[in-house]
Amino acid sequence: MKYVSLSDSTVRRLPFYLAMEEYVARRFDEEFFFMWQVDPTVIFGRNQLIEREVNIDYCRNNGIAVYRRKSGGGCVFADMSNIMFSYIVSSDDVVTTFSSYTERVAAMLRSLGLNAESTGRNDVLIDGRKVSGNAFYHIPGRSIVHGTMLYDTDLAHITQAISPSEAKLESKGVDSVRSHITTLSRHIDMDIEEFKDYARRYMSDGELVLTADDISSIEEMSQPYYSDEWILGKNPLCGVSRHCRIEGVGEFQVDIELKGRRVHKINIAGDYFLLSDIDAKLLDRLKGAFYTREALADAIGDIDVGSIISGLDKSQLLNILIE
After folding, report:
1. Among 16, 105, 199, 301, which residue has the least CB neighbours within 10 Å?
2. pLDDT digit string (tens) for 129-154?
3. Which of 47, 197, 199 is nearest to 136 (CA)?
4. pLDDT tens across 248-307, in order?
């Protein structure tokens, strides 16, 4: 696996690195890994509602940037004391790709003598506490996994900038965000640069250095991430609003705008693990359907719901959409 390097040490804004992942995945065919850091930033998932997940006033008052990513999953906080990992591989097997990567990260931590394990849908734990959370998205023939490595992150910012629902906290059996996370600096006697050097050597055995032309192309690709339309997302004025959590699958917020008795607009937000294009493969199929359980079931048809939202089946989806 090759490490992707930039020709300078400039700290860029988060959209650059998200675009860099996609650029490398589309432009080159090999397996890649790279690390990056950003100034204080909240990153929330493609299908999340910003007003439910982010304390916007706190972020604005404390100079914390807020961006939406293309991958699903939950909301995370990053700063210069947090290391972001990106992994790119040629694969269509979501489960294998994800588990292989998180186990590789856990093995790297175990090689430092830590009690680390990959567990849950997307986490790496040390002594039972989360030190790394990860998310996934897919483009044709290529898979991208990216996530956090909490080195010495400001936990006060995490607890104030991110606003998880009570249902999510109750499902984890904790009463705060702070109680179920840890930082790497509590467990190893290495500074952040020493750890980054170690992680690079452990995870990669070659290098790809991006050129000035590559960087220019990446900057162009990053521009849509800055738009208000992308950041604020889809939250239609709705005649129906439903919220629930399915253990082992995730949290769901459904907003549906009806015209007459038919579905006009629909959005399914949440921290669920997205495996495919939910708009093209599912939500577009529901538009125009009568808002009845039978009509929605007919619109879904024989779609393999679990191939779009990990762990979810058709019956559960219908329960989410309608009583």
Report:
1. 301
2. 999 999 988 888 899 999 999 999 87
3. 47
4. 999 999 999 888 778 999 999 999 999 989 999 999 999 999 888 889 999 999 999 999
Q: The pTM is what?
A: 0.76
pLDDT at 174 > cutoff 50: no
Which stretches of the chain are assigned E, i.e. beta strand?
2-5, 32-36, 41-44, 65-68, 76-78, 82-89, 116-119, 123-126, 129-139, 142-150, 206-209, 240-246, 250-259, 262-270
The residue count of the chain comes to: 323
Q: Domain 2-232 - what CATH class? A: alpha beta
63 backbone φψ class: left, alpha, beta (φ>0; ψ -120 to 50): left
In the chain, where the domains are located:
2-232, 240-321
Q: For residues 266 and 283, is the Cβ–Cβ distance under 8 A?
A: yes
Q: Report the distance separating Cα 207 and Cα 276, nearest Å.
A: 30
Q: Residue 3: beta bridge partners? A: 33, 207
Give whole-number Cα distances, 296 to 257, 261, 276, 293, 317, in Å. Answer: 14, 12, 20, 5, 10
CB 35 within 8 A of CB 204: no
| Distance in angstroms (rounded) separating the CA atoms of residues 59 and 157 | 9
Q: Which residue has the tokens 């898979």?
A: 143
